[in-house]
């Protein structure tokens, strides 16, 4: 039970810090980025096409948003190909892995 409480506390803190970072550094893209983060908290894997649908953006805008999130260390590419790339909300998943140690 303590493990679950610690993990939940870490997740809530991470969510809050991530939202603050996005609000202060993403400018006009902040609302789309926060919307994507909320979806990533439920399913930490995404591709550009899914981000496009979730955020109601053009493909280019969704791709640019994912690139910024990768540059900021929020997302990490799981696949190396240039098309149909899959990204993971890496720092979020690590909260669950580190809590289990």
Strand order of the largest sheet: 1-3-2
Radius of gyration (CA) equals 14 Å
CATH architecture: Orthogonal Bundle
What is the element string, with H for helices and E for strands?
A: HHEHHEEH
Poorly predicted tracts of residues: none
Shape: globular
| Largest sheet features | 3 strands, antiparallel
On the 0 to 100 scale, the average pLDDT is 92
Q: Might you state the CATH topology name?
A: Arc Repressor Mutant, subunit A
| N- to C-terminal distance | 15 Å
Work out the count of structural domains: 1
Structural class assignment: mainly alpha
CATH uppermost class: Mainly Alpha
Considering DSSP H and I runs of 4 or more, what fraction of the residues is helical? Answer: 55-70%
Number of helices: 5
State the fourth-level CATH superfamily.
Answer: Winged helix-like DNA-binding domain superfamily/Winged helix DNA-binding domain
Protein name: Fic family protein
